[in-house]
Amino acid sequence: MAERHKLLLESPNLQEEKLPRRSAKSSTESGYVLSIASLPSFYAASASAPFNVIDIFDKTTLRGVQTLSGHETATTSLRTAASLAGIIQNCLVSSGKDGSVKAWDERSSTPSITMTNPGKKYPLLCCDVSQDGMTVAAGSDLQGEEAVLVYWDPRKSTTPLRTHTSTHSDDITTVAFGPQNVLLSGSADGLICTSNADEDDEDESTIQVGNWGCSVSQVGWIQGVSDPDSAAIWASSDMETFSTWKSDLDQLLSLDIRSPVLHNGRTWVTDYHITTHSSSTSNPNPAIFTGSNEGDVVLLSNMNLSVPDAPWCLHKIWSHGHTGIVRGLLWDEPNETLVTGGEDGKLNVWPIKPIPVENKEDEEDDDDEDEDDSMVVDSPKLRKRERQADDERRGKKARR
Q1: What is the pLDDT of residues 226-242, one digit of tens each?
Q2: Which CATH number fits domain 6-393: 3.40.50.170, 3.20.20.150, 1.20.1250.20, 2.130.10.10?
């Protein structure tokens, strides 16, 4: 395990939101909110077993407008696809332990497409849709000696295109499509893999394999990375460790996400990683969201996720919104909104400011007092402060 305490700096204009803008309860009342997805006018939130439903909430009022039946046995993941089966339209897609992936038609409260495997019903733990909407992939839990990656063409939903049974040897917990139909997958076997989703031969489909040595719970692509030596993939484990990897799955960073702690002026101690958000439309540095057992959420960033000793920064706190662990989190960038869901069955909507993309000209003006960098992950002031703190931690005289 990585060292317990790492440097966590406070943003020059750290902000705290102490009350959500709007709140709503799951239709199940007592069920956990597990995951959240965004549609143009609605938020969707999946509920835990035994309910397994998907609640639809109006974005403006957060009023519950519809409840989808979800899956017969555990709705395990929830996604929004920009297009599916050649139709360019935002679509809600879910996976379940009933062995199906469903694309939902909000107008009728029933699935418009149900993807199944009639040969063998593998309980599915995760799913994603390719960027062109023509391939759907899902990962199963371990059945006997097999954990399976299943691929569908959503236009031919009753039979999979292919199933791959040897990519992973334990539960496949997370999948994420990248460019060129490359599928990123993570598993309880400790492996992170990239695969060619268009290749029928499983031996030929595997592109790269990285062995983290701990059960992988989430993986994702870091958007806008062109340098082959930079972090291109992030991952988290069920042991609250966080890692970054090059595109060839050479590991760059691995640490206990609970280790960056703040005790200077105010105290923040992370209990768990919620998720990481990366978008080419916002700052290239990923936004890393962590939580406390009391239900508070913070946004952390790291100046260089390719360097193990780079300092961390605390940018914003959202508190007093939940009474327990936060399970789902969505950054709705177009609406500058953060949506959280937790074990208390609540869905909360919070304000969040955008993280501006770094402007190279700003590096020449560290004294610009008009810049609001409370949420700027890569501001000149913060870079200077982090360099000084990093030098002091190494016992050097800070540069001025």
Answers
A1: 899 999 999 999 999 99
A2: 2.130.10.10
pLDDT, tens digit (0-9, with 9 covering 90-100), for 298-351: 999 998 999 998 999 999 999 999 999 999 999 999 999 999 999 999 999 999
Entry pTM: 0.88
DSSP 40: S
Which pair of structure tokens corresponds to residue 227?
Answer: 């340098």
Tell me if 282 sits within 8 A of 357, measured CB to CB: yes
Q: In what order do the strands lie in the sheet with 337-342?
A: 22-25, 346-351, 337-342, 326-332
The CA-CA-CA angle for residues 206, 209, 215, to 5°, reads: 120
Structural domain spans, the chain: 6-393
pLDDT in tens, 113-123: 999 998 788 99
> Kind of pairing, strands 110-115 and 101-105?
antiparallel
Among 21, 96, 19, 108, CA closest to 56: 108
Beta carbons of 22 and 349 less than 8 angstroms apart: yes
Neighbours of 353 (CB within 10 A): 13
- Alpha-carbon torsion, ordered 246, 194, 175, 257, to 10 deg: -30
Closest CA to 377 of 352, 350, 349: 352
